[in-house]
Write a structure and sequence with these properties.
By secondary structure, the protein is an alpha/beta fold. The chain has a single domain, classed as Rossmann fold (3-Layer(aba) Sandwich). 33% of the residues lie in helices and 24% in strands. The chain is built from eight helices and nine strands. It has a nine-stranded mixed sheet with strand order 1-2-3-5-4-6-7-8-9, with helices on both faces. Strand 2 and strand 3 form a beta hairpin. Helix 3 crosses helix 8 and helix 5 packs across helix 6. The longest helix has 21 residues. The chain is globular, with a radius of gyration of 18 Å.
Length: 263
């Protein structure tokens, strides 16, 4: 992996490497009727000498022009024990949102050379460096997108993250609230929600895994700041990615889209 990274750094130049275009027709079984294009890009953050792969899902130009929607969604995966391909593990959600006109950028946060996520101690302490690295990845991706895709809408930037990726997203919203319009957590359990009304915060909660004490806002805080929590009564934590059943994915798709469309 280190050899590969060295080669990529030499080739990176301004920071962007080759892309592989993989147009895919979204099946009717997933209630998607438009054509979505998925590209993979291997970016390199020169300041950190770090490889940052992304998968970009977006509607074909004809669909995008019809919808006149250029909002960006940055998607952060749950912890995958440094397995390659985690950034493609939410294709059902990314394809669905792209079919609605959004540009979805899913980041591979973990590399094989990274330390494994600590499983002992207080997560708020032991996992902080992992979340901070995720924040830096997101900041880098935003910079690269602005440089390479000035046509997109960065005034309404949205973050979606599952589990550990949700923790990263909540930390990002805490540290850089001015950059984000909406944050959607798919059952993050460790990083406390910022108690703020901007950005808007929404979370889908699993039926099986509770959050740590102090992570979720109390009912009065939810009302005060307009934070919305929705319990998925029939979906467990590990069914929120592509492993979920079709009806579970459809429920998540519709709830997420409904929140994104709120003014």
């Amino acid at each position: 992996m280190k050899i590969l990274l060295s080669i990529l750094l030499l080739l990176a130049g301004a920071g962007s490497l080759s892309a592989q275009q993989k147009p895919s027709v979204v099946s009717a079984a997933k209630s998607l009727t438009s054509v979505v294009k998925m590209d993979t890009l291997n970016w390199v953050d020169q300041s950190r000498k770090r490889f940052v792969p992304v998968a970009i899902y977006e509607p074909e130009k004809s669909i995008a022009s019809q919808r006149k929607l250029n909002q960006v969604i940055i998607l952060s995966h749950g912890y995958g024990q440094n397995q390659w391909g985690s950034y493609k593990a939410y294709s059902y959600l990314a394809n669905f949102l792209a079919s609605k006109g959004y540009t979805v950028v899913s980041i591979q946060h973990e590399l094989s050379t990274d330390d494994l996520l600590p499983t002992t101690g207080k997560p708020i302490e032991t996992r902080w460096s992992n979340w901070e690295r995720g924040v830096q990845n997101i900041l880098f991706v935003i910079r690269e997108l602005k440089r390479t895709r000035p046509d997109l809408d960065y005034k309404h930037l949205n973050l979606i993250g599952h589990s550990n990726g949700g923790d990263m997203s909540m930390l990002f919203a805490t540290q850089h609230p001015e950059l984000v319009d909406k944050v959607i957590s798919l059952d993050n359990r460790r990083m406390p929600f910022p108690r703020v009304s901007k950005p808007r915060i929404y979370s889908l909660r699993s039926s099986d895994q509770p959050a740590d004490e102090g992570v979720l806002p109390a009912p009065d805080e939810q009302q005060q700041f307009g934070i919305e929590l929705v319990k998925l009564k029939n979906t467990i934590h590990n069914e929120m990615d592509d492993n979920g059943k079709a009806w579970q994915q459809e429920e998540i798709n519709q709830l997420v889209l409904g929140f994104l469309l709120k003014k």
